[in-house]
Amino acid sequence: MNKRFVPDARAGPGLLPKTPTAAVVTASYAPDFERCRLLCETLDRHVSGTAHHYILVEHRDVALFRQLETDRRTVVDERDLLPRWLRAFDDPLSIFRRRVWLSLKTQPLRGWHVQQLRRIAVARHAREDVLIFCDSDVAFLKAFDCAAFWRDGKARLFRRDGALADEGHDEHRIWSRNAGSALGIDPSRTSTHDYISTLIAWRRDTVLSMCGQIEKVHGRDWVEVVGAARRFSECMIYGRYVDDLLEEAGHFHGSEEFCRVHWTGEALSDDEFRRFVAGMAPEQVAIGMQSFIGTDIGRIRRLIGLD
Length: 307
Hints:
This protein has a single domain, classed as Alpha-Beta Complex (Spore Coat Polysaccharide Biosynthesis Protein SpsA, Chain A). Helices cover 32% and strands 19% of the residues. It has helices at residues 33-46, 62-65, 111-125, 170-183, 204-218, 222-229, 234-245, 270-278, 297-303; strands spanning 22-27, 47-48, 52-57, 73-77, 87-90, 99-102, 130-133, 138-140, 144-145, 150-151, 154-158, 200-203, 251-254, 259-262, 286-289. A 5-stranded mixed beta sheet has the order 4-3-1-7-12. Strands 8-15-14 form a 3-stranded mixed beta sheet. It has a 3-stranded mixed beta sheet with strand order 10-11-13, with no helix packed on it. It is globular and about 55 Å long.
């Protein structure tokens, strides 16, 4: 068992400092490099209230992403975050086009699994009070103050109330159940809330306590426990920890999404892209174009006025 985490779920987190420090956290990989560059440019242009930006990548991508480093932006090697027994290899089953992370302690994991583990693990690496998670295929279009993520000493927990009670969320329900299992929550105590989005915030002290809770329940490293399930969501684990075990201590809920995301479908034409941007809600300050959809990054840059 990893001794660095000492949880006390009963006590819960205290109040944040009057003006907490905040960091933006982005997990990325080489095929998304240009999208991540765009994120960095728009974040620097539009976002205030954050002290630092951490970009979390696989070891072999560190040199590439170092081009984006500044005095307020650091590239973090996953080897400095995750156990050395979890190693990445080229996957022969994909004709070596994809990566797979293997160990004797977890299921085989894909990049999107390991990106989630990095987001949790960065809490031990960072020193800021609040961690703001933003995917690398996001671009900010409007001014945004990260103070929106705290109020009266509490951090904003994104929660879509009762969403899992609706049809079409089978995978999310599995993630929620597996989150409960990892945290040691009684299986009869289910949740219908969804906590998954981009541009959301966690308290760093709560993440550390959450990892300690997992290790206390299972007597094993939290990475081993989470990775053994394979079907998991880091957002579900954090959300259920806060709501089910901490009884919301140190947090307040918010359901508005600050980023409008094009999750599925075809790449957008110029006119469709303009309509998508025009359809942003008043509170939305950024857009996300899922990279696997294939919307050309040059087109995005041109349409938002950067080229």
